[in-house]
Fold:
Amino acid sequence: MFYQPCNLKRVKVFDPFMGSGTTVGEAIKLGATAIGKDINPVAYFLVKNALVKLDKSRVIAIFEELKKAVAAQIQYYYTTILDNGEPATVLYYFWVKYLSCPACNHSVDLFSSYIFSKHAYPHKFPQAQVICPQCKNINTVHYAARQITCQSCQFVFNPQIGAVKGQKATCNHCHHTFSIVKSVQKTGKPPAHRMYAKLVLIKDGSKQYLPINQYDRNLYEEAKKELSIRPNAYPVVAIESGYNTDQILNYCYHYWHEMFNERQLLSLSMLAGEIKQIDNRKLRDLFICLFSGTLEFNNMFASFKGEGTGAVRHLFSHHILKPERTPLEANVWGTLKSSGSFSTLFESRILKAIDYCTQPFEIKPVCRKGKVETEKIYGLSPAIDSEIAGVFDELSELKPVYLSCGDSAFTDIPTESIDAVITDPPFFDNVHYSQLADFFHVWQCYLTSESVNSKETTRHPNEVQSKEVSIFTDRLQRVFSECHRVLKLDGLMVFTYHHSKADGWQAILTALVKAGFAIVATHPIKSEMSVATPKSQAKEPIDIDVIIVCHHRVKVELNDSLVDALSAATQKTALQVQRFNVYQRHLSRNDVLVVFMAQLLKLLSVHPNLEIALNWLEAKRSQIQQYVEDIYNQQTFSNQSVKSK
Structure:
């Protein structure tokens, strides 16, 4: 039915962990009544602005006013003078952290490799850019070169090996090796940076890598001076200790604004000052969202992805706050050839979002002349242009969407009024969203006094995420219990989940059963892109999510037998893994574990005694690992079966 019009007019869908609003948006497109709630104000703010009805011409007019007010001022600080005396626009400045050697006090640039730019497809485009460690000149070399001679100073070096290896650095002057983080902590402040290269846009439209010159240094000093005299130029908010913030606190970043350099802060301050003056609240909030996206790409935790792709790797590409040793400073306002800038994000996010809401579409793969392409299928969904209800009782045909911010363990939704709960709960020991969301929240509070939450943090004592499994389980159960209350007796609760640890699965089983649910189906699907940074760096990456489908326990038949649980889970897991193998998808051990545990939890969730089920699961840990290993090793592939499918 995916490529057919479908109307779920009388269906009510609830997402208690709304996040970025995927469930809410898709429910609206299907004509359902959509109810979304999230404890994090940044998530709520995002979804509300994604769904608000806006006049595109008015949005463009506001952007043009902003452009007229600040674009030239910001662009001034992203210019340079070429050797021939001509001015040029700087697309990106390349920076490197440096520390003083504890032994000889010489400055040590924290390069792990002196190759700072190469193509995303280096085998096809092998040209790369290298910084000489001796004279700081830029050399063009083959990306795999192991020995080069600097064209400027004739210094011979291996461009693949920099001063940094792992968490330590070696001084090129005295060859002393030292801990990077310990050296940073001795200074009591974030590491210093220096510019070493820039990518400029020449008048003829070509790009050129150039070393930093005195004009660049003077211009940066000018930006620092200008920032110093701007009153209340940016939010000054301390970073609180936490699972995902302790890493940058260890690097002596104590305030959120320390994640930016002075030129970035000046440019952002100019933008923020104009956005604050937008009279219409809906329009102002929309541009605050755009500003938030700009923050993500314009900070000293962003890095260079390379040629042939979106140039800027945003600070959350690792799902953590990772101090970047070779950060990239992008042109904040941007050009047509920029990436991650305010102007380009306006085109790629805001205008495309408005167009999508006006005419929603689905992407369909099609085969043309033996090549798989995609096309947009329109006409499946009505325009997304409804008013948003402020409370449940306001829901109507004119207001079929209800969004709220708060603890989803408590709602104003009537008992047994929801047809489906569809959600994606957080993990207990992984990414702590509130700690990361504070990066945006401090600026959103700075930009408007009418923000959802005037606190300086989005952390909440009732948020489900916790590194303590017992706390995570209890809080998740509270939300699931509320879902059980509001869900109709014949309704479904559906959520996606994966985890590599036994505690993560025991927590889900406990929360579900105590809340009154039983699992009736599990469907493994491909989830995050395999090329995502956390995936590509993992030894046994999890590429699979499981869609877990639940009913009220009173609607399913309970079974107190666990005798055949392992063999039954093994058989069904093997069949599901084979279905992936048919399409040449080899699952990692952790992927197989995810599929197996979901099947096992389905059987355990209908046991009448939760304590017995949990004790049995704990006792079978080693056997489970062996079954997973056997299934992993038995994966087979058949090219013929792929062709026949």
The chain has 18 helices and 26 strands. Residues 56-76 form the longest helix (21 residues).
